[in-house]
Amino acid sequence: MGLSFGSVLRRGVLAGMLAGLAAAVMIWLVVEPVIRRALVIEDLRSMHGGQAAPPGFAAHGGGEPLVSRTAQVVGGAVTSVVVGIAVGVIFAVVFARVRERLPGRGDFGRSMVLAAIGFAAVSLLPALKIPSNPPAVGDPSTVGRRTMLYAVVLLLGVAVAVVVPTMDRRLALRGVVASTRWALDVAAVVVLLALVLLLVPGSPDQVPADVPADLVWDFRLASLAQLATMWLALGLAFGLLMERIAARSRALRPVAS
Fold first, then answer.
1. Rounded CA gap, 160 and 199, in Å?
2. How confident is the model over 54-79, as pLDDT tens digits?
3. DSSP-derived secondary structure for 100-151
4. How far is Cα 202 from Cα 220, in angstroms, rounded to an integer?
5. Residue 106 binned pLDDT confidence (cut-offs 50, 70, 90)
6. In Å, how far are 194, 205, 226 from 156, measured between CA atoms?
7. Burial of 90 (0-12, 13-18, 19+ CB in 10 A)
8. What is the domain partition of the chain in residue ranges?
9. What is the DSSP letter of 200?
10. End-to-end CA distance of the chain
């Protein structure tokens, strides 16, 4: 039973949808409570003419902006599923192209390896350099610069994920032993990531004095946990779906007499 590109792509769509749903659950359970804490600070600023609220001053009742969060959360969940499907499609295309070069036992292991690479290059590296901030942090005038820096770091992360395996294959063709290649791969990853973190400018935004540090870090960790959940669910779902193809192929294989 052959493995067609169409079958891989369909499994990528399904796995991406499941990953998007998992990320949406994380948004609702983990990210949304932190966002609501940040929105309280924005409410306090609006009550004080846009200035930081006095220390110790607390808002009660939430107000109208918090009520409208229901529609925003639903929209965010739908967006999460759409993004998950798009990532699943890209994941399936990349998997089909590099399947034979991915390490791991079986397609499940290869899927998990690719998901780990995707998380590190597309989510973790940008989060370390341009960390996400809650609603109470960030100047609207710097949105364009922040977006550009985030995109640059993301593209550089993808470039590292492409360059290092390419280097490894060329070393293998020259007869370099696996242990030496592994050491050179690790060194190359460390050097390239260090250059990205050192040379690319950081976020231009400063955390306002009325925003507690624990709120900022809770939001950043929650956002990273949401992304990690999406990649983990994508790797698990896609790997399991691909293993079903292998199991079906083995079941249909004639038994030698």
1. 15
2. 444 344 444 454 445 677 778 888 89
3. GGS-SSHHHHHHHHHHHHHIIIIIIHHHHHS----TTS--GGGHHHHHHHHH
4. 15
5. confident
6. 12, 22, 22
7. middle
8. 5-137+209-252, 142-206
9. S
10. 20
